[in-house]
Amino acid sequence: MITGSATTVDSLSWQEQLATSIRDPRELLQLLELDPELLEGALAGHGDFPLRVPAAYLQRIEKGNANDPLLRQVLPLGTELLDTPGYSTDPLEEQSSNPAPGLIHKYHGRVLLIVSPNCAINCRYCFRRHFPYGDNKPGRGEWQQALDYIAQDSSITEVIFSGGDPLAASDRQLQWLVEQLESIPHLKRLRIHTRLPVVIPDRITDNCLQWLGDNRFHTSMVIHSNHPNELDDSVDAALQRLKKSNVTLLNQTVLLAGINDAQDTLERLSERLFECGVLPYYLHQLDRISGAAHFAVPDQQARQLHQNLMTSLPGYLVPKLVRETPYAPHKVPL
Questions:
Q1: Is the alpha carbon torsion for 231, 225, 161, 55 positive or negative?
Q2: How far out from the chain centre does Cα 82 lie?
């Protein structure tokens, strides 16, 4: 375990852990005993998309290993500033599907609410690293436009909480929003897309479980884990609490070069997820967001990996290999 005032998580609330996340590349390199030569590139990448790493996640990273698969997901690099053809600041063209502040409507029957503009961790491959959160962070008084939009479209049966990370919002705010949605009769399902149970497991509090379990919806949670090393005992315990509260647990993984683009890694990830009560859901090809081209895995390699997984794992442990394409009516299988 990494120790130090900035990284001690014992007895800290999840809010305190969120507030004291590592945000300085110098501190990150020092705590992990990494080569100071990495600093120049880290500062450059940090200037474009800030570093943010909670201590609970930092403790799972191997000291002195610049190639640690968890570190590579969060360490800024100078290569993020390169202009790569085919990569853009809005690869999914979400801003054209943003009919009300805080609401994205891309697919039939479901809408996505930007519940919080904040994340507990800044993943370097994030497809919303350039998203205009300033225009999409309504307060309680401003949510009515999004709620009216949902109420007026009876084809919408599912609401997805996203962000940022929706669990970065307070339980009080989340419970209020769920109560507003419960009054819309055609809604049937609530889905939460979040990385917080993985990066700050203490976020799964009694208050969180109360609003998750005490509503009329069929509730599911899609976590985001890319590597089995992310799923330590503390994460397992948080996920088991969610499962006992009748929350359906799924996982999305992004295929990332040098991190999880190996059959053994993906096999271990699926097996570990299942031990934690989570079913693999999607294996995403990288969204072509500016700054993340170095994570790209060729489609041919991705297909071969997926074929190998179908051979080596039972079908329920094999995630669907997909790409998200602007204006397509659904995720596109590869």
A1: positive
A2: 24
In the sheet with 320-323, reading across from the earlier edge strand, the strands are 103-107, 110-116, 158-163, 189-194, 218-224, 248-254, 279-284, 320-323, 332-333
322, 306, 231, 219: which is closest to 274 by C-alpha?
231
Q: pLDDT tens, 276-289? A: 999 999 999 999 99
State the DSSP code for 289: B
For 44, 48, 258, the CA distances from 270, given in Å and listed in that order, are 35, 33, 18
**135's tokens:** 């225009």
- Dig out the tokens for 93 from the structure: 């063209």
Give tens-digit pLDDT for 44-55: 999 999 999 999
DSSP code, position 134: G
**What value does the mean pLDDT of the chain take?**
93
Residue at token pair 């698969």: 69
